[in-house]
Amino acid sequence: MKLNLLLKNELIENFNNVFSNTNHSVYFSPGRVNLIGEHIDYNGGFVFPAAISYGTYGVASLNETQNINIYSKGFSKMVDTFSLNDLSKKDSDGYLSYIKGIFYTLKMKGIHIVKGLDIYIESTLPTSSGLSSSASLEMLIIYILNDIYKLNLTTLDMVNISKETENKYVGVHSGIMDQFAVGFGKYNHAILLDTQTLFYEHIPFDLKNYRLLIINSNKPRQLAASKYNERFGECQETLQILKKHFNIEHLCELEVSDLPQIKALLSDTLYRRIKHCITEQTRVIQSKKALIKGDILSFGNAMNLSHESLRYDYEVSVDELDTIVDVARNSGAIGARMTGAGFGGCAIAIVEDKFANHVKEKILTTYQQKFSMDASIYEVEISSGTHKL
Ligand code: GLA
N or C: the chain end with fewer CB closer than 10 Å? Predict the structure, then answer.
């Protein structure tokens, strides 16, 4: 199924099979793909993501208790329960921490939820794939709570609560890109977001006679959180050093012309990290212009340069992603890069329609031969943000 959509009636039926509760509402929260602008949302840079038609569905209903009961088809196959009177994080929480964390963050803001809920969750997003299954889940939950408890939160409030949950409760120092893309998605549009000011524009996503392939390496991302936090720490360290020489609050305020001066101030590793950030920022702007002009070749070229920078300077790619990117390019893609945090997960490629089948086949066969495991390829539609069905 190209769009990977689930039917509302089936979701309600599934909910009814688990919970005997009739007064329910159904919601959808998309995943996201980042077109370009990687690892710069926590450095005040521009990013260019889009919400996708793969995502997380939820059916929710008030119950008469003070418990939150969750049945997640993908995660546990049994009803997990936590009490609204104990929102502390447990080692065994797993996916539940994203849900419990939202209640916790609300509580920290003085919003006390006292009535329990039954929630059925079903996702069409592969987990740990760099397509933001966690932001999709966080935004689903806060959207449900906002709707059912009439909290009067704006989309930006919900984005901020989800990000805070990820940063403080889950413990990953991620930027705002994922939750923002999931919340502010627009059908057939990418989002150009300035992460410093949160100014954003919806840019029509029209690839003409080209298409976007998402290729999942299916490589588990065990080290992703710790490596991610390591990169975050390196950027913080770099910022502290450079603040003594430049009047800046964020790394992405610096320009390519500052690089020679910067080089003399940093170790080789930190220099390569910031070189990625500054050059990636310029590639995002170029990509936006190229997409508006319908210049898909230039957009593809920026994607290629982005991958090289992530591979050699920011060092967040892995052999599996490099192989997918190389094979995609060598078999006809005009642009390919890893997407998301890296260390596994997905790559994306822009391919002319007539070469799409050939490129897909080459990727799948080469990947299987080299790694003795299968890659998966998705074609998605660009979706609107989290909403009620
Ligand atoms: C993860 C984070 C985002 C962003 C990307 C890398 O998806 O959640 O905030 O930093 O990695 O661009």
Answer: N
